[in-house]
């Protein structure tokens, strides 16, 4: 044996073999309907059938929601055959948007927003899907801030936070066509671990206390974009301009980090005191130090320019590494535009590079090279910039000396203490696409009659690939980052080892074909997951097939897919998940379901003890055992029999007493009946299905 080969064997002895690169392998995909007519599903592309998801390992299901307003429960116990086993329609078609869903223990939380009434958002808590009864019960409904975009639980399910973006729209409460809602964070605290029982407190935090210091925060880099329309008396404040997008919580669950995407900042929230402590600007990316493709008419051409990028992350995640705290961000970018129908006015903060030159908005201090690039459609001429940033201070001419574009086209790592930048992937996202997927570089669905390849380069002049979502997974001595790019519909994997804060590239993956039109690819179920909106890593011990999986949601394709993550270190003694009809309950649990309307309330109580079985290894199996206070010993049987006899005797005595009282007071009862003539005492829910009640409950929300 050659000496070098012998040395390699010695060095690698006892080490888990890991493939050179961690990658993805497609397992299965399910296409989701965006609406139902007489219980018949309707499918189509670009209909918001799915946007967010949550995995319920104990029950072997995934919950998905989309802006079309339908919650689907998908059975994933057989990863090769995904099936919809339950649905909730929250409204008449497209009136009530479901914006996020999360499962925590035995409960499922859903955030909702009515499309036509943006005076508040709604949080609903349901029981988790019950396989035996094939249902989900509505437990409670709470009012939260306007346009909730995301929700997150603490690990014990007793605290829930929502990021409420707030949007400019009409108000039904104030009857005004112009309503710029406050951006807020709602904190819901449940008095017990049973989310359906006991009181809950809801506190919605706004940014009003920062209004007096708005100039200070703007000078630091927090963007204040929209303060009203100059042509009207309509005004907006700094706090109204803040737009919370996403929340992540630290390990101690004492602090929440809230991404303010359009404002290019992150707010820190103290969960215990229920207060916003600070707003941290994220700064700017100097594109002269990196390269980007800024033109949609030149193919793949990447250059460095004297312009700046605003990171503007959509999705952020907290993680710890080497005993330090960090935040990772997917730097999508986003501009702001409003339409005020009452005045027939449209406001937008965006401007193309050529317009600076055509309207003589470039300051004399700008270099000749940059002036030339801003005029050239093959360079910066078509690129979208902001006219709210870069204006020369104290200039009577309102000219611009610096130019800011949207998004970092990257992912970044930030110090969780002060939000200082630790790492940015620079040009790597676009460069890896140009190397591995040049035929769909910076693409998106420009037209359903186009093919993915003909739409190549169509997003270069906007925000490029738009990194949308990120998942962070620590395994052994390495940390893995999964980056989902919205426009190119690709997933990139990076990793880093102990002692490092510089991730290295592992692989890039894209599902779906590219040789037919977008429409044909969808109809043939070959489109893949388009516009990645959500991703979730499922580890070995939580996986239905004992393999590490990545759950992916494609919002434009309306799909949910499972991918096996290949090349990861394998556990020495893998413990595989066993899914049961119902997950185990450590103690007897009482579930109270309340349906409340202005007319009446209905309450039902059930008590059950459920058990499950687990296997140490092998393929997960479904077991059907459910015990309701079961007993096997003779002594316990005698006790139960005596208890039943005693209960019968007690019921008989109570019945006799009630009968005596009835006949004694029959005359009084007749008199009361006469007073209430025409009023029915029957429950309004007696002859209605659960789904019918759900639709009525949704319609109640629409009332001003």
TrEMBL record:
The keyword Transcription does not apply. Residues 445-469 are annotated as: Disordered. Keywords: Membrane, Signal, Transmembrane, Transmembrane helix. Residues 456-466 have a biased composition (Basic and acidic residues). Residues 144-565 form the Choice-of-anchor I domain. Residues 1-20 form the signal peptide. The chain crosses the membrane at residues 637-663. It comes from the Eukaryota. Residues 445-455 have a biased composition (Polar residues). This is Choice-of-anchor I domain-containing protein. It comes from Owenia fusiformis.
